[in-house]
Amino acid sequence: MTGAHDQRRQLKNAFHAHQFGWLDIVIWGSALAAWFLFPTYLTLGTYVLIMILFALSLNLAVGYGGIETLGHAAFFGTGSYAAALYALHVSEEPLSGLFVAGAAAGILGLISGIFILRTRGLALVMLTLAIASMLHEFAITAKVITGGDDGLSGYRLSPILGMFRFDLAGKTGYLYCLAVLALAFLYSRVLTNSPFGLTAAGIRENPLRTRLLGIPTARRTVLLYAQSAILAGLAGGLSAQIVRIASVDSLSFVMSGNVLIMSVLGGVNRLYGAFLGATLYVVFSDRAAAIDPYNWLLATGILLILVVRYMPDGLMGFIETRILKSRGEPK
Amino acid sequence: MNVLPLNVVGLNKSFGGVHVTRNVNLQLAAGSRHALIGPNGAGKTTLLNLLTGLLSPASGKIYVFGTEVNRMAPERRVKLGLARTFQINSLFLNMTVAENVGLAVSAAAGFDAKLWGRLQCKPEILDRISELLTKVRLVDVAHYRIRDLAYGYRRLVEIAVALALNPKILMLDEPAAGVPARDTELILQILEELPSDLAVLLIEHDMNMVFRFASRITVLVDGAVLTEGSVNSIRSDERVHQVYLGKRSHG
After folding, report:
1. Which of A19, A206, B85, B173 is most exposed by smallest CB count within 10 Å?
2. Which tens digit of pLDDT belongs to each residue from B198-239?
3. Is B93 close to A205, i.e. CB distance below 8 A?
4. Residue A7's closest chain B neighbor by CA?
5. Relative orientation angle of helices A73-89 and A121-141, to the nearest 10 degrees
């Protein structure tokens, strides 16, 4: 009997799985510490958290699903407008507003995914771009609904759970975003560790072989895409709730491009890559723009080139291989 | 009346003007050990691609347990019991051996869309993986990533992955290709241990292996069936010697 037991244990260890470890403590610890240490930077910090959530969503699609996209802002923007419209016309309650934001983006991901995920590569990049552009145009022209170029603003939000009021310094907003991010991260980790996560990894690596295991790969890919869209919608919803404006910029190509840069900087196929990439990009851009308001984009460009050249798996991949190497474990 | 696991009737396929499959008929009974031989370019792998649904035929019919599958998607054919291995290893290189087999076991058990829990925490899944790896003698390398695994072992993982799907018809595309001679004996041994009710179609160039494993042989030349018969009748067939065996023995 012990033989069978040992064999199970050995096999269990032959599966990759993210385990709770020191990295979790460091990352979540510093996110929480920032709230205490930088009370005057909480606005920037909250923006970082929202972008982390957005990049996390992109990592699920690109890194785990192998879905090439340049139009992820479609979901961020949809979530953003959904949350704003909900606050304006339905209720000022923030949690239900956030739910609506995620749901709206998820439905868009599901429907658009069914049509566009038949393609791959450049064609898919173009289709995702086209969908985001269409929504962007719609937001500009449908003034009655979206407020056109001015976007939607002038809505208020009631306290979270009726207890925590949004304050001017952004203390509540930061913790609110951190809590949502934590839940989204937990969800993503459960997902990537699940049997579906293994299926997604199979589809990414060898779609044809996965089909020949009897797996309907098209449907599974749409399922992953929709879940990624939900997370992007939550990020957009948070943005609309915190900044109190839903603007056409949230649907723009620049938005899709920026989040892709963040993901690449951090490493697309690691969940924590989103954390490092978004933090680095936002903080670096902020500092560079403060030093030189005219040429800061150049510095950001150089940073991206250096990371891609010397850390092809992103910052997180670089750190992981360094740590594994220093421990002498085979990768 | 017994329904044949696989029944191929008058199958045709051409690429451009080249006829790669010409009026092929093939029947596989339950438990049959059937070999498909023929010179390079005879259309053996094309036939396998037609059967698994990677290509669709120009005309003719493919029946799996009496169901016509001509227009059926590959993944649905797998659910009917059709599994194959690939001539060129087609595994998940960045996954471990256990994960490769585990993914197939998960698909067969209907877990592949389960969003929570872990495959490796289900004892019945682990036991199934362990059973399959024992069959192909790979328990000790379960934790190796495929890209770190020797070529011959990868061929065995291919077989384990196909078996994980609980196939009723197993198609093996040159399982011994590129495997050192001392290891082909092991592959043959593994093939001989396959369930007796499983219908097996073997494509192989190693004639020693074909003659030892198969009870019936179909010879394919230029996309058409040259002849079909028992091992002895194929062995003594003059035409087969001319187009195939003769050439090989000098080669």
Report:
1. A19
2. 999 999 988 899 999 999 999 999 999 999 999 999 998 888
3. yes
4. B130
5. 30
Look at residue A57 in the predicted model and tell me its pLDDT: 98
**Distance from C-alpha of A195 to C-alpha of A188, rounded to nearest angstrom:** 13
Same domain, B243 and B176: yes
Q: Do B186 and B142 fall within a single domain?
A: no
Minimum Cα–Cα distance from A198: chain B residue:
B103
Do B41 and B135 lie in a common domain? no
CA atoms lying within 13 Å on the CB side of residue A252? 11
Out of B119, B137, B157, a domain closes at B157
Q: How confident is the model at residue A331 (pLDDT cuts 50, 70, 90)?
A: very low
User: Does the CB of A1 have a partner CB in chain B at under 8 Å?
Assistant: no
Contacts of B102 in chain A (CB under 8 A): 15, 198
Does the beta-carbon distance from B121 to A12 stay under 8 Å?
A: yes
Structure tokens at B61: 């019919």
Query: Are B131 and B228 members of one domain?
Result: no
Q: What single letter denotes the amino acid at residue B77?
A: R
| A126-141 mean pLDDT | 97
**Domain range holding B106?**
92-157
pLDDT exceeds 60 at position B132: yes
Distance, first Cα to last Cα, chain A = 32
Beta-carbon separation of A8 and B142 below 8 A = no
Q: Which residue of A has its CA nearest to B52?
A: A212
Asked if B106 lies within 8 A of A209 by C-beta distance, the reply is no
**Cα–Cα distance between A250 and A82 in angstroms, integer?**
12
Structure tokens, A140? 């500009």
Coil vs helix vs strand at A166: coil
**Domain shared by B66 and B190, yes or no:** yes
Lowest mean pLDDT among A217-221, A279-283, A296-300, B125-129: A296-300
Q: Which two tokens stand for residue B194?
A: 């396959």
Neighbours of A293 (CB within 10 A): 8
Work out how many domains chain B is built from and give that number: 2
Task: State the pLDDT at residue B251.
Answer: 34
> Is B106 inside a domain boundary?
yes
Would B86 be classed as within a structural domain?
A: no
CB contact under 8 A, A14 and B75: no
Residue A269 in contact with partner chain B when CB distance is under 8 A: no
Looking at B129, B157, B185, which one is the last position of a domain?
B157
Scanning every residue of chain A, which has its alpha carbon at the shortest distance from the alpha carbon of B78? Answer: A214
CATH number for the domain spanning B67: value is: 3.40.50.300
Residue A329 pLDDT > 70 = no
